[in-house]
UniProtKB/TrEMBL annotation:
GO terms for biological process: protein insertion into membrane; protein transport. InterPro entries: YidC/ALB3/OXA1/COX18, YidC/Oxa/ALB_C, YidC_ALB_C. Residues 369-378 have a biased composition (Basic residues). It is found in: Cell membrane; Membrane. Coiled coil: none annotated. Belongs to the OXA1/ALB3/YidC family. Type 1 subfamily. It is a multi-pass membrane protein. One of its GO terms (cellular component) is plasma membrane. Residues 290-378 are annotated as: Disordered. This is Membrane protein insertase YidC. The chain crosses the membrane at residues 31-52, 97-118, 188-207, 241-267. One of its GO terms (molecular function) is membrane insertase activity.
């Protein structure tokens, strides 16, 4: 059913086993454990870029939370409109919520694929998913890309005296596949329990690191908190599940996990710890560089010290209606415009006070000397 997952997982595991068989030997438990560990690292290296994109997308989505909360409040009860507006906001911000799930969607099949491949080295049991093969049939049957010789090498390998595919709740009839049977259930417990505890503790601290960073960013103002109390409550519940529930699930289900699978989980958590520190530092540098660019752009557009900002040119004054060629105003314009127009009118000096008085008393414009002379001649 999931052969498209099982075959690639077994191929990567086979490759690393061949690499470490050179210094440690093909039947060594160290070579098999290192092959599992480097299978983990191979998958995680391929997921570094998607994980980085996921973190960037997550930061953008957190910045968009106030807008999304406003949309939900504005279009309350209209789910179609809420979805349309949410898609529009995400598209404008360049956010793809589905792309952020890619690392998790890839790691889950890898986990179950490795679980199946390790389990398939021993198919002598009669429980669910077992083929009920005899010891000889099991040792002579290939396991995906692994040849029968590789299967025998895996069954004979030991880690602290315990088979790599053994687990605490393994049925007693499956012990027969590991010849000679030089271990007990307590031997498995002594190896598995420390690995279970290590995996659970590492999961706890990795989740706590991520949550503490989020809280520090909110406290510093770099990230906005959830707008509604309901959303904050949901986020707090998710944080508690990551910090306490998931580690507890590892403790309670670890009794069904193979030693090799516990090695995978331990290596995965160690990788996650260092990868998170590197990604957080990289994102902080990118954010600081972006802020510096904004400051430089602001300084570039600001006026230089000691230099007055250039004012826009004033529009030329419009000519007043009714103005004559010699710059005098008609009496209609003076009366219509009131005192302000009279004050703006050009002053003509006839040199004779009586002429000025005559113009005022008759309501006619002042008579200039040239006009007065023409009257006398007439």
């Amino acid at each position: 059913m999931l052969d498209f997952v099982y075959w690639p997982i077994s191929a990567i595991l086979w490759f690393w086993h061949k690499v470490f068989s050179v210094p440690f030997g093909s039947g060594s438990g160290v070579s098999w454990v290192l092959a599992i560990v480097f299978l983990t690292f191979t998958i995680r290296v391929l997921l570094v870029k998607p994980m980085l994109n996921q973190m960037r997308s997550s930061m953008k989505m957190q910045a968009l939370q106030p807008q999304l909360a406003e949309v939900k409040e504005r279009w309350k009860g209209d789910q179609t409109k809420i979805m349309e507006e949410t898609r529009r906001i995400n598209k404008e911000a360049g956010v793809n919520p589905i792309a952020g799930c890619l690392p998790i969607l890839v790691q889950m099949p890898v986990f179950f694929g490795l679980f199946h491949v390790l389990r398939s080295f021993n198919r002598t049991g009669s429980g669910p998913g077992q083929l009920g093969l005899s010891i000889e049939e099991n040792r002579q049957l290939a396991n995906y890309i692994f040849s029968p010789t590789d299967v025998q090498s895996f069954l004979d390998a030991r880690l602290f005296g315990v088979p790599i595919s053994a687990y605490i709740k393994m049925p007693g009839d499956m012990y027969e596949a590991f010849q000679p049977i030089d271990f007990t259930r307590m031997n498995i417990v002594f190896v598995a329990v420390p690995l279970i505890i290590l995996t659970a503790v590492a999961t706890h601290f990795n989740a706590k690191m991520s949550i503490n960073r989020q809280r520090e960013r909110i406290a510093s103002g770099k990230q906005k908190s959830m707008a509604s109390a309901q959303m904050q409550s949901q986020m707090e519940m998710m944080n508690k599940m990551m910090v306490w529930f998931f580690p507890a699930m590892i403790v309670f289900t670890g009794i069904f996990w193979h030693i090799g699978l516990l090695c995978y989980m331990g290596a995965n958590n160690i990788w996650t710890f260092f990868q998170q520190r590197w990604i957080f530092a990289k994102l902080d540098r990118e954010e600081a560089a972006e802020e510096e660019q904004k400051k430089q752009a602001k300084r570039a557009t600001a006026p230089k010290p000691g230099v007055r900002p250039e004012n826009p040119k004033k529009a030329p004054k419009k000519k007043r209606r009714g103005s004559s060629g010699n710059g005098t105003l008609s009496i209609d314009q003076v009366v219509g415009d009131g005192p302000a127009a009279a004050e703006d009118a050009p002053v003509t000096d006839s040199g004779d006070p009586d002429d000025a008085q005559e113009g005022i008393s008759t309501g006619e414009p002042p008579v200039t000397k040239s006009k007065k002379k023409r009257k006398k001649r007439r």
